């Protein structure tokens, strides 16, 4: 135990003692380590410790309490939690409560929990409020809170903590406040308001932007106005001013962003510098599900939350891209290429877009009844060996060789770290902390170590004066991005478009110039090489997938990884019975569809589809309709990076 304690002490970066208003005999020793935030509860001789891991923390913010107004008196009868006035960070009129010199540090974490249902998991939001009130001057308290904020943010994005700013005697408060890295460049957000059921803007405002604001990631939001708007936006703008590109909608808007990048001469620089993110608001959402599945995140419990956390955590994962060539166009794809049964469902169910993902189920039954046969030739370059490729992860860049001790507490107004002894707590009707937040009672910690409760509120104590409590609240769940105090911009539909409207399909202008890596396979107009395999005949479906999911409920390639350099070619030949096709559809959700008779899955590096002339059908790339005719594709491993948990 002593060795363990020594290890914990050696890795402790910041340490402070905090209290709860209603618990006179309870205090918490809060430690910030390289692993996360340690809360050690001391109550009547008993000790409990819980650690909120760094991987669960998305950000933190420093704030100051606002002055009460007669219209928001907290002592009037009948006040509800939803009426509580928010603490904001950018009050232009500076209506601060001058009697409260406290600095509040809000730490936002989304903790992975086990649900009561066996095997089910979910992420739940927890806010840790640390109220620094040890000193009589707000600037001194703010300096304490800002040191914690800077250290936490550096640990989150895995960069070295600037030790000069961590010194308690550091006098330049403004420099300390602006020392957090990676806060200058904004995130570019492209939002499709018509994806899926058409609730993209509402979902962004209510559920996505609050998370981005908690992580203090400023963003520029642009609403797409028509088909190929995002593609032309990416092609024509100076996108190097942003820190990353986030697509909000279905797989289609990500497809537009991707191909807009490859219409730029500097495509390689863009892919190297800017990670790509996606938050699902569409009908299929296969890419978002594949990213979460690869990282073992509980996507199904809350898809938007899990994907939003991927955006703000600042981690990147390589992903394979596929170059697709038709007679008239070149595309770059991140998800799949389809011909036949699945492509028909994807395209023809568009008329049912308003009902969301259920459109695929309904149209699957229609196509099962009217099963179609397609004639043509399938050629593919098989994989000689399927290697297990591990996804790259960001290493911890913090200097572990540093021999520095715990960063010392400021000495400006007191030199005792533990100031809980002999301090009498004043009672004040203004202090509504206990009525609007969950204090850390004995029920706070489960034996399994799980954190419960949405808000954890702790505060330091003072020696030089009695407590001066003031109104503040952090529990309002109804705040929107309009009141977060962020530097984000929101470009509405009124913005003057700088690009012309294109056709309604993904082909767009036939004069588009596509860049990207050079092809390594024979041209589409020539014969394939002798090391290719050819299958000529009748088919029900051919679908090439390079991610595990092509939809939230379509687990098409169970063995696929984000960056394994493999295309998984699904082939269903004619002659399969409707019973087996029904089994295929029912098993697609769990991956057992590959056990059905007449269903083959082949790992390949490249493939070509040549439909027989005179037959009309559907071909899709990432769920978008393309010209029907000869098509070939090849994979380029780890060509791009995606935001991931």
From TrEMBL:
EC numbers for this chain: 2.7.1.91
Keywords: ATP-binding, Kinase, Membrane, Nucleotide-binding, Transferase
Keyword match Kinase: yes
Gene3D superfamilies for this protein: 2.60.200.40, Probable inorganic polyphosphate/atp-NAD kinase, domain 1 (3.40.50.10330)
GO terms of biological process kind: regulation of apoptotic process; sphingosine biosynthetic process
Location within or outside the cell: Endomembrane system
A GO cellular component annotation in the UniProt record: cytoplasm
PANTHER family: LD11247P-RELATED (PTHR12358:SF112), SPHINGOSINE KINASE (PTHR12358)
Protein name in the entry: sphingosine kinase
């Amino acid at each position: 135990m002593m060795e363990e304690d020594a290890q914990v002490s050696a890795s402790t970066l910041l340490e402070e003692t905090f209290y709860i208003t209603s618990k006179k005999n309870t205090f918490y020793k809060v430690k910030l380590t390289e692993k996360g935030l340690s809360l050690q509860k001391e109550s009547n001789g008993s000790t409990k410790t819980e650690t909120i891991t760094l991987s669960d923390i998305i950000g933190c913010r420093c704030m100051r309490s606002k002055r009460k107004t007669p219209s928001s008196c907290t002592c009037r009868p009948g006040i509800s939690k939803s009426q509580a006035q928010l603490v904001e960070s950018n009050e232009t009129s500076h209506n601060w409560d001058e009697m409260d010199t406290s600095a509040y540090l809000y730490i936002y974490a989304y903790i992975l929990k086990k649900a009561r249902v066996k095997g089910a998991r979910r992420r739940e939001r927890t806010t840790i409020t640390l109220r620094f009130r040890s000193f009589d001057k707000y600037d001194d308290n703010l300096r304490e809170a800002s040191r914690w904020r800077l250290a936490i943010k550096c640990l989150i994005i895995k960069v070295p903590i600037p030790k000069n700013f961590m010194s308690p005697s550091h006098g330049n408060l403004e420099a300390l406040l602006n020392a957090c890295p990676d806060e200058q460049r904004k995130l570019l957000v492209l939002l499709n308001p018509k994806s899926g059921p058409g609730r993209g803007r509402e979902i962004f405002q209510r559920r996505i932007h609050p998370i981005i604001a908690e992580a203090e990631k400023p963003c520029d939001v642009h609403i797409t106005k028509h088909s190929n708007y995002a593609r032309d936006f990416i092609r024509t703008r100076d996108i190097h001013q942003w820190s990353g590109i986030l697509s909000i909608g279905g797989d289609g808007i990500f497809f537009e962003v991707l191909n807009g990048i490859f219409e730029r001469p500097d495509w390689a620089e863009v892919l190297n510098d800017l990670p790509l993110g996606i938050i699902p608001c569409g009908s299929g959402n296969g890419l978002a599900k594949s990213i979460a599945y690869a990282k073992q995140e509980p996507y199904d419990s809350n898809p938007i939350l899990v994907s939003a956390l991927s955006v703000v955590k600042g981690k990147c994962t390589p992903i394979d891209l596929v170059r697709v060539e038709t007679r008239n166009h070149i595309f770059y794809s991140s998800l799949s290429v389809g011909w036949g049964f699945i492509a028909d469902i994807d395209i023809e169910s568009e008329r049912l877009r308003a009902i969301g993902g259920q459109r695929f189920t309904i149209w699957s039954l229609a196509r099962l009844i009217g099963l179609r046969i397609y004639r043509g030739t399938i050629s593919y370059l098989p994989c000689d060996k399927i290697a297990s490729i591990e996804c790259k992860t960001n290493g911890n860049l913090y200097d572990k060789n540093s021999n520095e001790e715990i960063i010392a507490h400021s000495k400006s107004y007191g030199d005792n770290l533990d100031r809980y002894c002999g301090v009498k707590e004043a009672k004040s009707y203004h202090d509504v902390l206990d009525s609007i937040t969950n204090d850390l009672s004995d029920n706070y910690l489960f034996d399994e170590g799980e954190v419960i409760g949405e808000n954890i509120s702790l505060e330091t104590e003072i020696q030089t004066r009695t407590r001066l409590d003031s109104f503040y609240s952090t529990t309002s769940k109804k705040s929107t991005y309009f009141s977060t105090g962020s530097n984000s911009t929101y470009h509405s539909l009124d913005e003057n478009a700088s690009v012309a409207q294109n056709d309604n399909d993904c082909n767009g202008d036939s004069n588009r110039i596509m860049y990207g890596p050079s092809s390594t396979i024979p041209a589409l107009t020539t014969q394939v090489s002798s090391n290719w395999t050819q299958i000529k005949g009748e088919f029900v479906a051919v679908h090439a997938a390079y991610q595990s999911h092509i939809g939230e409920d379509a687990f098409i390639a169970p063995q696929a990884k984000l960056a394994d350099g493999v295309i998984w070619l699904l082939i269903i030949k004619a002659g399969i019975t409707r019973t087996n096709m029904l089994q295929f559809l029912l098993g697609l959700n769990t991956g057992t569809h590959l056990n059905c008779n007449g269903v083959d899955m082949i790992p390949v590096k490249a493939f070509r589809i040549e439909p027989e002339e005179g037959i009309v059908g559907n071909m899709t790339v990432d769920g978008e309709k393309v010209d029907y005719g000869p098509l070939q594709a090849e994979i380029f491993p780890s060509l791009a990076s995606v935001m991931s948990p």
